[in-house]
Specification:
Blueprint: E1 9-12, E2 21-24, E3 27-28, E4 30-35, E5 38-44, H1 47-56, E6 60-62, E7 71-75, H2 82-98, H3 102-112, H4 114-118
Antiparallel strand pairs: 1-2, 2-3, 4-5, 5-7, 6-7
Length: 120
């Protein structure tokens, strides 16, 4: 629910019915699926922060099937506090919004305000 609560986030299933991909405009900012009966998600991340999170949490791994420099896989096994997971989602969303075309980004900023888009 939190993934889809982000401004203009929509769900897509480009990899099949088992992997939900939240997108902002046409860009994905996460994936959410189940592997071995445990939910997990991929989230975009600043490379330095990605390594820090991997060191801090055993349930954060290099991005599965993603660019391991810029994406983490977060295993949702209950070991990471919900607030930290939400912060990681906010960070991923913000990184993708910043890379949108200028006109798309400005329209979002006018509609929702910079605070809603860039909180981290």
């Amino acid at each position: 629910q939190y993934l889809l609560s982000k401004p203009e986030a929509r769900e897509d299933y480009p990899f099949g019915p088992d992997v939900m991909v939240p997108k902002i405009k046409a860009k994905m900012f996460a994936t959410l699926g189940v592997n071995d009966n445990i939910a997990q998600m991929n989230l975009k991340c600043d490379p330095d922060q990605a390594n820090e999170l991997r060191d801090l949490f055993e349930a954060v791994k290099p991005g599965y099937h993603m660019n391991k420099l810029h994406w983490n896989t977060v295993i949702l096994d209950g070991s990471i506090p919900v607030g930290e997971i939400e912060r990681m989602i906010d960070h991923s969303y913000k990184l993708v919004v910043k890379k949108l075309r200028k006109a798309e980004r400005q329209a979002l900023e006018l509609s929702y305000g910079k605070e809603a888009l860039y909180k981290d």
